[in-house]
Amino acid sequence: MRTRIKMCGTTRIEDALAAVSLGVDALGFIFVEKSPRNISPAVAESIISSLPSFVGRVGVFVDSGMDEIKLIVERCGLTQLQLHGNESVSFCSQLRRWNKSLSICKAFRVGAGSPSVDTASYGPAIDSILLDTYIKGIKGGTGDCFDWGLIDTLDIERPLILAGGLAPATISEALVKVSPFAVDINSGVEDAPGIKNHQKLSELVALVGDYDFHRRQESV
Questions:
Q1: pTM of the model
Q2: Which pLDDT score is estimated for 177?
């Protein structure tokens, strides 16, 4: 199985096209005003209109209202939602009923002092689970790794997307220890918030490819 790659915090068309050319599977667009990588629906729509049809278009939200999410999904042509707030099982189920083709990912924050993580209760309301680093008072990405050993204590029943501090220097160890379905990269391939470093991105994609190649060889 190939490890999927999502590049989050997309704000520029040149970064989006570079990621696509390197084989990144999905691009994330953060619709959160407080985020340094916040993007307007208008700019996101412009970037997305230039993407090949097979590239995933992920909208990242934190406790946004149902109507706001629906409007942005329809305007931008999003294929997946990534929910980083306190969105309930009921909320996710409503989104599922509204658009059955929309993939829904619920993010949970893990780390020392983090609240208990109840992934199992979401059941069929979501398609995947993203684990990111917990830092008190912060919702969304932190740019730091968490203790990946904590994943073994969680009841993960959906494909796992690993986030938090993933960069060329950390990705290989993360893949070996976690073997996630997908990785979510952001600040680890940036020069500044929302400004991607294409060389770092290329290096990380190559390292993921090397991991997948060796894993296939070992299974033969």
A1: 0.94
A2: 95
